[in-house]
Design a protein that fits this description.
Two copies of one chain form a homodimer. By secondary structure, chain A is of the alpha+beta class. Chain A has 18 helices and 16 strands.
């Protein structure tokens, strides 16, 4: 009995047109990663469980897909553990491997394992899928790609400058003009927490601040109060909720606020350096702005924080983000390796390009030239022609069977084929072929011996 | 306490140089897939277990990686099943998803699910990793890529001709001249079994015949006897073990042997058509030959069978293979979809190219131009220069910190950087930069305003 097939929820099949559009984004990102001197690495899809578990918090641990041990996996489980019938206790006894949850932890593991082969500073990029057992919803999948570029082993703020240029280069190349690159610094956030006397509550403070867009100023204040941040502290921080003016003015307001925080002033200085350099170098199409409400969920950032929003008018969350972290590899025993990196959100960029109709039309062309099939002898002559075209890098194809010509034309239309070649018995005798331009219906005859004229006309 | 990190056995990290070499192969294959009119699809890394289980035999079922259900997976297991503590009975209760084992079954599932969107004949290619819980050994991994191209919904033998041309085009482009494309036909094998009176033992016959290279003629005969094929039958088939002459002579010997087998003669006719067409079209560097011992392990092939061996002198099994199957999608309820496809063995091709030193040297160049870093002011001028280079598609980079110049030169050497730019305080004043050719040590000074001259010289 045949099954009605389906795929697991939260996963996707990609059709040829979708693969082409996704590859267009991947290839553009990859090209600029390379031009900026980043080198590719790849890591296995699954890691040993102990490499991943405990690195993403309790919630993360729950969302990691575990792979069942092969063979008679229960034979190694002691009866005591087994008899409790407890999923959490049984899991580590029957699974040793888990699917990659992000690219950062495997990268840290890679750097530590290969530290003797790596010549630091190491600029690496990695474009691979990750898996999360999240509840699937619109725009959130259980399998999705991450596109990361990081520099490890270099403390210079020039890295931050380059990463801003890299965002600008990629989005300009994708013709997605006017993205907003938002900049902040964890030291500034820490300074703010220090000044307002809620140092130990920094994480709560930033997590609440991060929700400003979603729940508004009142909502943020309410959450801060609930977390135990005093009214007085919140009042001190209030100016942050409505900073205005250009980046210079904003920085000087903040400098005044943070005048007694060494860490805060260090953060301001870093921001000033980065903004000054970027202004001198110029950006092609992106806009750089400060955003002191930018905190990002992850707690491992220690310096600069980046986030990229799509151009005005497009309703979509961030399409990229990143930052500097002082200790990437400490969890695996290699101390003092500083890094800074950015990430591109493939699925969201895809949706934005689709909404703005920015995918090149050529992505829908899988075959440039289709030869119709008039029978065996004609097909042989056509295949010779097609070989020549293919050797010139032209996507050419022969309709595979001697079907009705009308059906063959329909096939060409469905595939957006721009040129159809007719080589029937008449042309065979005349050593010629007819090219039909499918856009305007024009027909032109070429001699087989001067196929180069046709190639040149493409 | 920091862990000493490792990766699961049978999996691999790929360094930048390895990724570049692998991508060189992938990109070459992909380019020709596209030029031959194949369209890309991608399917999820994991499928519902019922999509995969039972499709690869008992051994296959064992080698499929299963993913543990998320959350409290034991809550759905009845106490009766649980109390037996039996791995095989528990598995289907606690796993619903499994990692892709090959690309063929997911492709069949894809075709059935998307049959209304697909305009047949459908030429698809797919390059994605697969996972098998096989015992790892030299050249056999638990995670590896498959590169498949298939045409479904077309019965014409022209497909076979094109697939041979495709093999030729890819291996020629990889400069791997002289590969052997071996050709056989399951109908011929079936005809042989018919003639020798061991029709119901065809699978055993072909599996034994497939081992001719490994265990020799005597070994094959012994295995056939053990499987219940009579001495008389084996004697009739014996000429097959040592067929010689050109393809024409071989075909006529076989034609005589199979004169009473309708199916066998049909197979011969198909082979003749393919060989005749390929001879008329010509191959660039590959050699096509018949191999009646070629059976391939898989049982779903029904017509043509392909296998590609590396050039003489390279000790390595097949680097590609494929064939025609009459019923790809029947398992999922869609009858009578014929297909033919080929596959490229990435890991083995990699090893062959490495052994023959055929990887282009440029793959080792991650940075074409490195600017040394003489301090903040010089770095800013260098970054402007670098932006111009990058905008021209040149892989350019700035050494990230103001380290000792000797250290910076060492970094350039380790990375095979061909050109180093020096822009120190002297050059800054003169609005110039010095280019050092790292191969011969030559230095040349350019004005910053005429950077195009330098770009043109690259």
């Amino acid at each position: 009995m045949a099954q009605k097939p389906s795929i697991p929820k939260g996963t996707r099949d990609f059709s040829p047109a979708e693969v082409n559009r996704r590859n267009y984004i991947f290839d553009t990102i990859k090209k600029h990663f390379q031009v900026f001197g980043f080198q590719p690495i790849e890591t296995p899809s699954f890691e040993n469980s102990e490499t991943l578990m405990g690195k993403y918090g309790d919630e993360g641990d729950r969302l990691i897909f575990k792979i069942l041990n092969s063979g008679d996996f229960l034979s190694k489980v002691d009866d005591g553990t087994y008899s409790t019938k407890n999923s959490a206790s049984l899991t580590p006894k029957i699974t040793e491997k888990a699917l990659r949850y992000d690219l950062t932890v495997p990268f840290a593991r890679y750097v530590v394992m290969h530290q003797n082969e790596i010549d630091f500073p190491f600029k690496r990029y990695q474009i691979q899928p990750v898996w999360r057992a999240d509840r699937p919803q619109k725009g959130r999948f259980r399998e999705f790609y991450q596109c990361d570029a990081d520099v490890v082993g270099a403390n210079s703020l020039l890295q931050e400058v380059e990463l801003i240029q890299l965002y600008d280069a990629v989005f300009t190349d994708l013709r997605l003009d006017g993205v907003h690159i938002k900049l902040n610094n964890r030291k500034v956030l820490a300074g703010i927490a220090e000044i307002i006397g809620a140092k130990q509550l920094l994480v709560d403070f930033t997590v609440a601040l991060d929700k400003l867009d979603k729940i508004g100023e009142e909502g943020v204040k309410k959450e801060m109060l609930e977390k135990g941040i005093s009214e007085k502290s919140i009042a001190k921080a209030a100016p942050l909720f409505s900073l205005s003016g250009d980046t210079g003015e904003q920085l000087s307001i903040l400098k005044a606020l943070l005048k007694d925080s060494e860490q805060g002033l260090e953060g301001i200085e870093e921001l000033e350096f980065i903004i000054d350099m970027v202004e001198q170098l110029g950006l092609q199409s992106a806009q750089l702005s400060l955003d002191f409400t930018l905190a990002r969920g992850l707690n491992y950032y220690t310096g600069t924080i980046f986030e990229v929003s799509p151009p005005e008018g497009v309703k979509m969350g961030s399409i990229g983000g990143g930052g500097r972290y002082d200790d990437l590899t400490g969890i695996f025993g290699l101390k003092d390796v500083s890094g800074v990196g950015i990430s591109f959100g493939l699925d969201r960029i895809y949706l934005v390009l689709e909404e703005l109709n920015l995918f090149p039309k050529t992505l829908e062309q899988f075959v440039q030239v289709l030869c119709l099939n008039f029978g065996e002898k004609e097909a042989l002559a056509s295949l010779k022609l097609i070989s020549t075209l293919r050797n010139s890098g032209i996507k050419a194809d022969l309709y595979p069977t001697g079907a009705k010509i009308q059906k063959q034309f329909k096939y060409a239309n469905n595939r957006n084929v721009p040129y159809v070649i007719l080589l029937g018995d008449k042309e065979l005798v005349e050593n010629a072929f007819v090219v039909k331009n499918m856009a305007n219906g024009e027909q032109k005859t070429f001699s087989i011996d001067s196929i180069e004229d046709f190639i040149a006309s493409l």
